[in-house]
Amino acid sequence: MEKSLQSLNLLIGLMFVALLTFVISNNKINIIKANKVANTESIESVEKNLSCLALNIYREAANEPFEGKVAVAQVTLNRTEHPSFPSTICDVVYQKNSFMGKVVCQFSWYCDSVHRLKPVNKKAYDESFRVAKMVYLEDFKLESVRKALYYHADYVDPNWGKKKLTKIGAHIFYE
Do the Cβ atoms of 137 and 34 come closer than 8 Å? Predict the structure, then answer.
């Protein structure tokens, strides 16, 4: 009987800690969201950019490790702060250029209609969305890609001549 009570108390305690952690995390995200909105963006803009970032992480790095997803998100945000790229996340994600008479997307999945129209794996997308929130709203960063603006899969060689920063998962990141 005493062991049952101890087990029950332990279970209730764990549930309380989990609930408390969830509430505190949610409040923190709401405060960060409110501060970001109060400083520069509307709630609609934050939500739109968060969705664009999550989709880009999903399409570019769904099968990558956590750090790979963070790095892809970070490159996307780094581009918004660089004069060679658009200033919003969605504009960076959906940016197209014309190069030697061909349309080239900044992120290959956007030009690949077959890939773009594939159904979304909910579990992988949810993880990408969590990473997007961490990087965009909570300013979670990896030092190794602090200056990264470009990356490619390790099975291609674009011969860019850019400074290589690091390799994470199947992507190589460049300054």
Answer: no
Q: Report if residue 94 sits inside a domain.
A: yes
Domain count, the chain: 1
DSSP string, 85-125: S-SSHHHHHT-EEEETTEEEESSHHHH-HHHHTSPP-HHHH
d(CA 11, CA 160): 56
* Tens digits of residue pLDDT in 38-86: 456 688 889 999 999 999 999 999 999 999 999 999 999 999 999 999 9
Residue 90: CB atoms within 10 A of its CB come to 19
pTM: predicted TM-score of the whole model, two decimal places: 0.74
Assess if residue 111 is contained within a domain: yes
Tokens of 86: 């658009």
Taking each helix axis as running N to C, give the angle between helix 122-136 and helix 66-80, from 0 to 180 degrees, rounded to the nearest 10. 50
Look at residue 165 and tell me if it is in a domain: yes
Among residues 47, 56, 108, 104, the alpha carbon closest in space to that of 78 is found at 56
Range of the structural domain that residue 136 is part of: 41-174
